[in-house]
Specification:
A hairpin with a 7-residue loop joins β7 and β8. By secondary structure, the chain is of the alpha+beta class. α8 packs antiparallel against α9 and α9 packs across α12. The protein is elongated and about 105 Å long. The chain is built from 12 helices and 20 strands. The structure holds zinc ion (2 copies).
Length: about 500
């Protein structure tokens, strides 16, 4: 017999037993067992960040306590673990580490770099989950970046498309000029930053030297000014409604329009409507059917529509325009203000609004269903339910599901080169990358054309994770996937109620 070692090596002993238990499969879900009741946990697949941090430790401890308690109570417990790989953060990290932009290298090479980084991060985090002693069933492990998983994301898209929930349209979207991609409302964070209110004279058409004073934090949008608005109940200005006014520097005349949403107490009470300085502009343009002047390129520069400011960055254009306004004697004063602005939740760059063709999921028509479903679930704590319902009710726009990124699940769509007809993959074509293969049809169903243009965009990463609970249950391969669907426990961080819980529910 070996004598007991003088010092007890906890870590070595722990590893020995963890390995042994894994080999014995003590935490496995038993698919064949039809006697014990099942209990399934919709483990949130984390973004591989390389760090299994204290927040993760706390959360996985909660999941594990439930899993072990239910096992002891005689349940056949399903405790899966996956990895949500396609985060924008991975692309940003690869760009920083290799000092490249995603468009500088071929897409497959960029993808490989992302996959390598993800694998490195997963290994570190998996070690954390194991060391913590979580009773995860590792036979369930999955990665959303594998074609095996894409297949499911693509299938969910095709099914929803065939049901009429998916559409492609040209709509204004939140845009990060640094990441060069559309992002959903849920990915916009709000920060208070210092801004400046510029008081600018807009000369009135016709009569001598009359002008109206407009206060704006975004003078760089002057070239995209399509109207000037005042509140019809504001007696200081309603007499000007219907008259023409000159947009300074670009010397275009626009109409002064009445709009009830103008706040007479903000700035001077007269506002310029630009395409698009902010979300309010989007609403006003739709209400009054105003023209759209696209001012920004996808990488945040001024387009040709900006005249002499074309090619400048937003910041440079702001400086140049302010200088030109001063020189022309049209800038009355500048006041510092604190303002809340939307920024990209990955890189903190201020969000712009761009109008480009994108894929959308109709989510606003589901608001009542989301509310009904939220009411059928038992929430801990109870009041968090309202967070989901309030979020669903607050949405102005449908969910933009396309991303102008490289590392993501491909959108399984082609367009006819001749007539532009959209060809969506059939359910049995997936997984498919339209950039690498043609649709499995010999001609366009509309015009008979034989050439196709692939959709280059990829899905929002929440399209991948929004189906976690069905994937865990074995959808679509297992005929009995409804046995574990919906999950018995959906543990969620408060911060992802507006994304994971909402999209899942939707
Ligand atoms: Zn960004
Ligand atoms: Zn065609």
């Amino acid at each position: 017999m070996k004598p007991l070692p003088k010092e007890f090596d906890v870590i070595a002993i722990e590893r020995k037993w963890q390995k042994k238990w894994e080999e014995m499969g003590v935490y496995r879900f038993d698919w064949k067992d039809r006697k014990r009741p099942t209990f399934s946990i919709d483990t949130p697949p984390p973004y591989p960040s390389g760090e299994f941090h204290m927040g993760n430790v706390l959360n996985w401890t909660y999941f594990d306590i439930v899993a072990r308690y239910k096992r002891m109570r005689g349940f056949n417990v399903y405790f899966p673990q996956g990895w949500d790989c396609h985060g924008l953060g991975i692309e940003v990290q690869v760009e920083r580490e290799h000092n490249i932009k995603k468009r500088d290298v071929p897409p497959d090479k960029f993808r490989k770099l992302c996959e390598k980084l993800v694998e490195k991060y997963i290994a570190m985090m998996k070690e954390g989950v194991i060391r913590l002693g979580c009773s995860v069933d590792w036979t369930t492990e999955y990665r959303t970046m594998n074609p095996e998983y894409w297949k499911r994301t693509q299938l969910s898209f095709i099914i929803l498309y065939n049901k009429g929930f998916m559409y492609r349209g040209k709509h204004p979207v939140n845009w990060c000029p640094r990441c060069e991609t559309a992002i959903a409302d849920a990915e916009v964070d709000y920060e208070e930053r210092e801004g400046a209110l510029h008081y600018i004279r807009f000369p009135l058409e016709g009569r001598g030297n009359e002008h109206l004073l407009i206060a704006t934090t975004r003078p760089e949008f002057i070239p995209a000014c399509v109207a000037v608005a005042v509140n019809p109940v504001d007696d200081r200005f309603n007499k000007y409604i219907g008259r023409k006014i000159t947009v300074p520097l670009v010397n275009r005349t626009v109409e002064i329009i009445p709009d009830e949403n103008v706040d007479p107490s903000f700035g001077t009470g007269v506002v310029m409507i630009c395409t698009y300085g902010d979300k309010e502009d989007v609403k006003t343009v739709i209400r009054h059917k105003l023209p759209v002047i696209a001012l920004l390129t996808e990488d945040g520069k001024i387009t040709r529509n900006g005249g002499k400011y074309a090619g400048l960055t937003i910041e440079q254009a702001k400086k140049a325009i302010v200088e030109d306004l001063k020189a022309a004697g049209l800038l009355e004063k500048i006041e510092k203000i604190r303002q809340e602005i939307g920024v990209c939740d990955r890189c903190e760059t201020p969000i712009e609004i761009l109008e480009l063709p994108q894929w959308f999921m109709k989510t606003r028509i589901l608001t009542d269903k989301v509310e009904k479903a939220a009411n059928e679930v038992v929430w801990y704590p109870e009041h968090m339910k309202n967070r989901l319902i309030d979020w669903a009710r607050s949405l102005d726009w449908d969910w933009v599901i396309s991303r102008q990124r490289v590392f993501g699940t491909p959108i399984p769509v082609w367009y006819c080169k001749n007539c532009g007809e959209t060809i969506v993959a059939k359910e049995d074509w997936v997984p498919v990358d339209p950039k690498l293969e043609n649709p499995r049809t010999d001609k366009c169903p509309k015009c008979g054309g034989k050439e196709f243009i692939p959709e280059k965009d990829v899905f929002d990463t929440w399209m991948d994770s929004s189906i976690s609970c069905a994937v865990h249950a074995g959808w679509p391969e297992r005929e009995d996937w409804r046995r574990l669907f919906p999950a018995d426990l959906h543990p969620s961080g408060v911060d992802i109620i507006r994304t994971w819980a909402y999209y899942l529910d939707g």
